[in-house]
Flagellar basal-body rod modification protein FlgD (Actinoplanes digitatis), 155 residues
Amino acid sequence: MTSPIGGFVSRDFDVAGKTPTSMYTNKTTTDGGSKSVADQDTFLKLLVAQLKYQDPSNPADSTQFLAQTAQFTQVEKLGQIADMLQAQQLIGASSLVGTTVTYQDEYGMTKTGVVTKTKLNGDSEPILVVGNMDVQLSRVTEVQQTPPAAPVKTT
C-alpha cells in the first residue's frame, strides 16, 4: 500500500529553518506498492483457479465471488486509509517544531518545553524532542506558540 509521502526511515527537523537534517527514503512506496499489486494478483489467480476447477455438477455461487472481491477491495482501501492517517500524523508532528508543549512524562509529572526536533521513524509514533527529553506525541496535552525571543541590545 502506498502512502502519499512515502515511508519515513528517519527524518529530523531543526528549529532554525525547519528543514530536514537527515536522510529521507521512499521505502514504503517501492516495497508497499509492489506488495499490494502482488496481493491483488494472487487473489485474482486464486479466484480464476477456483472458477476453472469448480465442480460442474455443483457450480460456485457468483454472488460469493462478488462478495469476496468486494471484501478484498475494502481491506485494501482500509490499508490505504491507515497509511494516509499515519502520514497526516507525521506531518502534524513536524509542524510542532518551535512550539511550546506541555506533556506528561513517564512518571505522570506535567512538564513544559520547546520542541526542538521531531523524530519520524518508520511506522512508530512520532517522537518530539523537548529539551533533552524524547516525548511521544500522544503524551502532549497542550500546544502553544513560543513567544519570540527579545532582541539582544548591542552597545
